[in-house]
Amino acid sequence: MLAPDLKEHGVNWRFVQHDLRNVPLPFPDGEFDFIFIKDTGLCAATSGNQASPLAESIRLLKPGGVLEAWDSDHLFRTLLPNPPIPQGTSEDDVEQADEMAVYLISSSTGFAKPQNKYLQDYNIWVEKALDKRHLTAVPCALTGWAFSSDPEIIGNIGSRRIAVPFGEIRWEQEGVGECGLRGNDGRGPNVPAARTVSNIERKILTADQAALRRTALSTTIQFIEGLELILKEESGKRQDEWDRWWAGMTYDLLEQNGTYNGECLEIGAFWGQKR
Could you tell me which of 41, 52, 46 has the C-alpha nearest to residue 18? Predict the structure, then answer.
């Protein structure tokens, strides 16, 4: 079967390979109606004249165009029991989070430092390594700031942040409390009274929910592996010492449910429209 002529369906693809650190990008001003950015927190521009990490993307957008950016933080934290549902969250978003067994998070969500010793080590090393390279270990915070820093340029701003646990969590299995009181009346906008409280007791994850958490963990381990050179440098370990640490970490996380206390991957999605 021959591939269809995509241009007849309004699809006009052109692939361009370019180092995102080198700006300006090879496109004229106002070239695109929609720009989607994903996982570029470690791609800082080499040019020193970028006032915002979104400056180049905004340049390329047409007026009225939409910019959307996804990223995940490179430091890991432990999600505390009873995470409140963020104010203003729609019923659909709450139900979708429940279905996926992930947690909607905001600035009011309770976190603690990771209790897993290997993730504690990693956090120390990665923060030092990225700081030396003038990079942030929490790109979600930087991206959120960038979207809101100039309301005269970007409007209709929205965001959603979630925490994906790396596996089964002790307090889920123990059924520690319930979560979700919102606002002074116990409800947030657009959420009916029947959904004032969302039960977080998930003693048994479905196959799909467990697979999602396993994917988050596997992706995180692969990310740590990709940073081996700079992490090993900060750790001060010899190669044989590093190999032992790596073997211990992968065994603990993959085989021993070493994130049983609630360590998680924090992901953020942000969007806005160019005025």
Answer: 46
Q: What is the DSSP string of 193-250?
A: GGGSSB----SS--HHHHHHHHHHHHHHHHHHHHTHHHHHHHHT--HHHHHHHHHHHH
Cα separation, 34 vs 68, in Å, equals 8
* Cβ neighbourhood burial of 103 (10 Å; 0-12, 13-18, 19+): buried
Size of the chain in residues: 275
Angular region, 30: left φ>0, alpha ψ -120 to 50, beta rest: left
Residuewise pLDDT in 10s, the chain (275 residues): 455 676 777 777 888 999 988 889 999 999 999 999 999 888 875 555 456 788 999 999 999 999 999 999 999 999 999 899 999 999 999 999 999 999 999 989 999 999 999 999 999 999 999 999 999 999 999 999 999 988 899 999 999 999 999 999 999 988 755 444 333 333 344 444 444 434 445 558 999 999 999 999 999 999 999 999 999 999 999 999 999 999 999 999 999 999 999 999 999 999 999 99
Confirm whether pTM is higher than 0.90. Answer: no
Number of C-beta neighbours around residue 80 at 10 A: 14
Structure tokens at 165: 């646990």
Nearest alpha-carbon partner for 65 in 99, 27, 38, 31: 31
Distance between CA 212 and CA 166 in Å, rounded? 9
